[in-house]
Amino acid sequence: MEERSDKYLEGKHDDFSACAGPVDAVKLAAHQWQEFLESSPDPMWIKDTQGRYAAVNKAYLRADPGQTHDVIGKTDFEVQSRDRAEMYVADDQIAIHDGVCEHEFSAVD
C-alpha cells in the first residue's frame, strides 16, 4: 500500500469587499458637506454632539482672522477667548433646544 503525503492548508477566508461601499459612502457624504459649506459666502460650520468643530468653510476662517483649519476637532474653549466661547456654547444650546440662532454675525470683505 502506498502512503499518501498530500498536504493541504486549512483556513478561513473573509470577504471584506462589501465594507468598501459604506466607507466610500461616508467619504462621499463628508465631501458633499464640505462642498455645501464652501458654496456659501457666509461663515458656516458643523459641530459634533460634544461641541467640537467637524467642518468649517473658508468664509468662517476669513470672518475670524485668528482662526485656522486647526479648529477641526476642537471646542470653542480651545480656539476662542473664554467670553466668546461661553457665548458660542450658550448659542449652541439654544439652537439645539429651540431651533433658533440668537446671534447673527457680519463680516465685511
From TrEMBL:
Task: Kindly give the InterPro entries that the UniProt entry links to this protein.
Answer: PAS-like_dom_sf, PAS_4
UniProt cross-references to SUPFAM superfamilies, sorted A to Z? PYP-like sensor domain (PAS domain) (SSF55785)
Q: Enumerate the Pfam families for this protein.
A: PAS_4
List residues of the PAS fold-4 domain: 37-88
Which protein, by its recorded name, is this?
PAS fold-4 domain-containing protein
Q: Source species, please?
A: Candidatus Cryosericum odellii
